[in-house]
Amino acid sequence: MKMPFCTLIVSIMMALGIMSHANADDASWNAEDLKEVIRAYFEASGRTLPPDARIGPLDDRMKISACSVKPDVQPRSTYSSSLDVSCASPKSWSFTLRVDGVDTPATATVPRSVTAGGPIKQWSIVVPRLALAAGTILRSDMLEERLTSQPPGGALMRGVQEAVGLRLISALQPGNVLTTRNVARAPTIMKGEAVKLVAEGDGFSISATGRAEEDGFEGDLVSVRNIRSGIILSGRVAQSGTVIIR
Q: Looking at per-residue confidence, does 237 or 53 come out higher?
C-alpha cells in the first residue's frame, strides 16, 4: 500500500532531523525549573540555599518556553536578594525573582592601602568598567578593583561585593573611583519586580502574585498590579518584599 504523499514528506523530515528543532521549541519549563536555575546560580557562587529558602513568587501552574542556552542570572538589589533571570533562545523571557531565607554573604575585605615594591604606597579602589547612569543598580560585572598610587580620598568601597546591589545616586564614567558617597541602599522592592500580595481582614488572609509598578522601601505605600486580573492596587511594603493590601 502506498504511503500518502504528505505522510511520506513528514516521515522523511523526521528521519533527517528537520523537525527536531520545532519539537525542541515546544519544550516547556515550570516554576520548579526556574527555582533550579536560581539554586545553581547560588551554588556556582559558593553558596547553597537552605531547604526553607523561598524563591518567587512563582505560580506552580506556569509554563514557559524551555531555555536552550544557559539562562542569565544577575543580582538586582541589595545583597542579591532580588535577581533578574532571563533567556535569549529559542524564545526570550525574563523574570525578576526574590530569594528569602538566605544569609547575607560576608563582604570580602580589601585593604584601603597596600605597600608594593618597598616605599611605594598603593590604594585599592573600585571603579566602573563602563559608563553608569544615576539610578543604576550595581552588579559585579559592572565593576572591577584596581590599585592606584594616587591617594583617592573619600570613603572607599572595601571591594566589589560591598557595592553589588546598591544604587548609584550620581553618574560615573569608566575609571572613576566609587565611594560610599556615590551610592545609596536599594529599595525593598523595585519597579517591575514580582511581589507577593497579601490582603488581610477580620479572620482571613488571601495571597496572590503581583508586579510592582514603582520602587518602594519598607513602610511605603506603592502601586502594584495583580498579575492574574491586571487590576492595579495600592499596598504597604512589608518585610521580604511582601505588599499588604488593605
A: 237
